[in-house]
Structure formats: C-alpha cells, structure tokens
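Subject: design request, 452 residues
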C-alpha cells in the first residue's frame, strides 16, 4: 500500500528541484499542492521527473496569465483583447508620477479645503466636446447605466430604434444593459428603417428618455433610414424629454482630417445638433485609459453626479492622471493628428513600413526563416469604423506542414509574447501595430518560434 506514496516526492523536495520560478512562493506552492493532490487522486505511481514536468507546465500557464506587455502584430489598432489603445508617453509618465505618491485628487490647493474629484479633467472633457459640462465614470457601459437609472427612475421606459439594439463586444448587448439598469425598452421602427414618426408615436408619460446608439461596429447599407440628430433633438425638446447618444468610439478630432479615414461623428457634432448628452469610451479612438466620458447639458451632468450610484462608478486617481495627459495632448494638437500612438500608427506611411519589413525579411532569412513581405489590410477594431480597411505591410512566414497552431502557441509564449494571425497557411505579422522599438524583440521571437 505504501509503494505509490513513497514514489511521490515531498513538497519541500519539489520546491527545491523547481528552483526560482519568478512567481510568488505562495503561487508556486499552490500549484505544487494541486498537482500532488491530482496525482494522489489518480492513485497510480508517477515518475518524479514527469510530476516535475507537469508542475513546470502549470507554472508556465500561471506566468502566461500574468498581465504583461505583448507585441500586437494583428494590425488591429484598438484590440479589446490586447488592452485597446496604447497610452501616449505623457499619460504613461503621469501614471508613474501620480501612482507612487500622494496627489491633490480631492483637495483644492487654492483654498486648502476639500475639492471635487476630477474637476479639471471634467473641464477638459467639456472643452474637447464643446459641452457645457462633463463627467467621467469607469467605462462607456457604466455611463449608459448611470444615465438610464437616472432618467428612467420616475418614467421607466426608454425609446430606442430597433436598428440600434446592437451587440457591442463579447457579451455586451445594448438591450441587456438597458434592462439590467432597470429601464424598460420601448423599441421603435424596424431593423433597417426608423422614422421620426416612430419615435413621436412612442412618446408617453411612462417614457423617461430617448436613446440613440451610434452604429459604431457595423454598417448598414441599402433600404435604410433613421431620423438625423437634429430632428431627434428637436422632438426631445418639444416633448421635454432628454435625448442621449451613445457614441462608443469616442473620436474627438475629425478622423477624416487627421488620418484620412471616414469621418466619425464627434461628441461636438452631436451636441451641436442639439443632443442633450453624449457618452463615449476613453480607450478607443480617444487613445486614453478605460473610462466612460459623459458630456452635455450642465443640469443633466450635475444631476448624474448627484446619483448615489455615481459613487460606485467613479474613477481612481490613475485614470484621471492618464486621462488628463491624454486630453491635454489632444488639445495641444488641435486640428492635426495628436501625438498619440494610435494616430502615429495610423499615419505611418507604407514606405516606412516597407523599409522595416525588408529588414525583417533579410534578418529572418539570415536566421534560416523563410519570410516574405506581404500587403495585409488592418482595421481600427474595438467597434470603431468597421468598414475602414487600413492598407498595411506585413511579414509572412510559411508554416511547415500542420505546425501552425504549435508555432502560434510558441509565439504567444515568447518573451515577449507575440500575437499574430494565420493567413492562407502562413503566419502573418502586420507591422502597423508593432512599435519600431519592438522590432528587435519581434525578429528574435519569430526566429525562436520557427526553429524546428
Ligand atoms: C464600445 C462601445 C460601448 C462600450 O464602451 P466601454 O467603454 O467598453 O464600456 C458602448 N457603446 C458603443 C456604441 C460602443 O462602441
């Protein structure tokens, strides 16, 4: 009976064998105990070598789960799985500066009394949106929930077009968010056509607000219609009902002007059309941290901030620090592409990318990896400008036999991890989303992953 047990080494012995793992001891210990438990349950002798290998694999998995920098070679600029927008250096510096010390988050340095959190950032949001007032919560979904709870408390219904009951991302559907916030949907129109009359006819004493959702992540063509913002805003004013627009993507500059891509409606466009409130994300086209920005009429902003629920959605000092730096960067570059990674990547010329790709091809071939230049099309991603295709330059590497999955995995487990994609039997690295400072590391990781 004792045989199998004696075959299992002690925890201490295993820890000693494993050596330094670069993980907290408690994490290593938990993994070791879990593996030992598993082996004991199986009640079969297992070679110490095999046990150690299994534990090392589990520890590898834990290391892969840690939050860490990765190389985005997908060509998708705002990649939700990869943390959406990279922050600008000013924001990164601000984070470092604010994070490790104390800050005047809620202290008015002028009077020495308690100050309002985020007041300056709010004024910047209002400024870039051409709004009377603004505020900031954790994300755009939170902004929606806050507004819905507020405006539908006394009158529970919210009017929304059937063409705008959309799914934004993994598991985030507008109708579910609306109902989750206690509001009742009053759907109007059809998937492809909704008229002003549809909205008008839905107005009743039980309606608290009209919501417009920008179709940011898909595009409808053909027999489609919806009232424009001015008409909807006028209707709202006539019946005394707030009209809010969820803009999602959050382009505050004219995207056509600064990056020659289709023009996204800006918060200023909506507010100038008479919409009462807009909300948009901080980490999509704005290029900042995750946040939900709300801008519009001062009376509504004041009321939203008085909601007890607002307290549960407020941002911490790190978000304000990063957002402040991001918005100031935008304001410093009014009318031109702001010095933010997103816009710099978007505006990198094909010639620049081609020159880098040529280096990749040459260097990889030197290392025995058959690489070639390719011309992929990337996209904005993150549910923004879905029809915009961005011409790019990539490096393709032919995959031997059926090794694609294995090599993609090796790339993901590289140091740093590399996220690429498969294209007709080749692994493709789109260079538009790779920072030039990452070129060396990417070449090395590719070479290692493709080594037999
Ligand atoms: C992305 C998006 C959201 C969600 O924004 P988060 O900041 O991720 O919460 C909401 N509405 C629209 C239209 C979006 O595109």
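Subject: RE: design request

Done. Sequence follows.
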């Amino acid at each position: 009976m004792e045989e199998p047990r004696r075959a299992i080494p002690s925890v201490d012995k295993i820890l000693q064998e494993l050596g330094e793992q670069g993980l907290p001891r408690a994490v290593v210990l938990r993994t070791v105990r879990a593996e030992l438990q598993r082996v004991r349950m199986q009640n079969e002798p297992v070679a110490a070598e095999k046990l150690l290998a299994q534990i090392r694999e589990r520890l590898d998995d834990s290391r892969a789960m840690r939050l860490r920098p990765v190389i985005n070679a997908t060509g998708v600029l705002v990649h939700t799985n990869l943390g959406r927008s990279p922050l600008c250096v000013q924001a990164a510096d601000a984070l470092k500066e604010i994070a490790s010390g104390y800050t005047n988050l809620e202290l008015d340095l002028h009077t020495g009394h308690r100050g309002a959190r985020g007041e300056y950032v709010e004024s910047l949001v209002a400024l870039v949106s051409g709004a009377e007032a603004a505020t900031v919560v954790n994300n755009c979904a939170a902004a929606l929930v806050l507004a819905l709870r507020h405006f539908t408390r006394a009158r529970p219904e919210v009017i929304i077009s059937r063409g705008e009951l959309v799914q934004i991302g993994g598991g985030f559907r507008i109708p579910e968010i609306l109902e989750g916030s206690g509001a009742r949907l009053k759907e109007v129109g059809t998937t492809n056509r909704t008229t002003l009359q549809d909205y008008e006819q839905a107005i009743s004493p039980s309606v608290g607000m009209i919501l417009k959702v920008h179709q940011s992540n898909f595009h409808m063509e053909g027999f489609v219609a919806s009232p424009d913002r001015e008409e909807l805003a006028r209707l709202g004013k006539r019946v005394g009902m707030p009209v809010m627009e969820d803009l999602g993507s959050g382009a505050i500059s004219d995207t056509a002007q600064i990056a020659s891509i289709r023009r996204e409606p800006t918060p200023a466009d909506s507010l100038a059309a008479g919409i009462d409130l807009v909300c948009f994300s901080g980490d999509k086209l704005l290029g900042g941290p995750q946040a939900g920005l709300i801008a519009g009429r001062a009376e509504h902003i004041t009321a939203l901030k008085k909601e007890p629920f607002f307290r549960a959605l407020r941002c911490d000092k790190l978000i304000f620090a990063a957002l402040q730096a991001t918005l100031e960067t935008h304001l410093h570059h009014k009318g031109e592409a702001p010095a933010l990674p997103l816009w710099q990547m978007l505006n990198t010329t094909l010639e620049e990318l081609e020159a880098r790709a040529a280096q990749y091809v040459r260097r990889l071939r030197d290392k025995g990896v058959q690489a070639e230049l390719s011309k992929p099309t990337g996209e904005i991603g993150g549910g923004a400008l879905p029809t915009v295709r961005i011409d790019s330059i990539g490096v393709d590497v032919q995959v031997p036999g059926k090794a694609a999955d294995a090599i993609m995995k090796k790339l993901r487990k590289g140091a740093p991890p590399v996220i690429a994609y498969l294209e007709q039997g080749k692994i493709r690295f789109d260079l538009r989303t790779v920072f030039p400072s990452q070129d060396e590391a990417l070449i090395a990781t590719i070479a290692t992953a493709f080594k037999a």
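The chain has three domains: 11-65, 71-83+343-449, 89-339.
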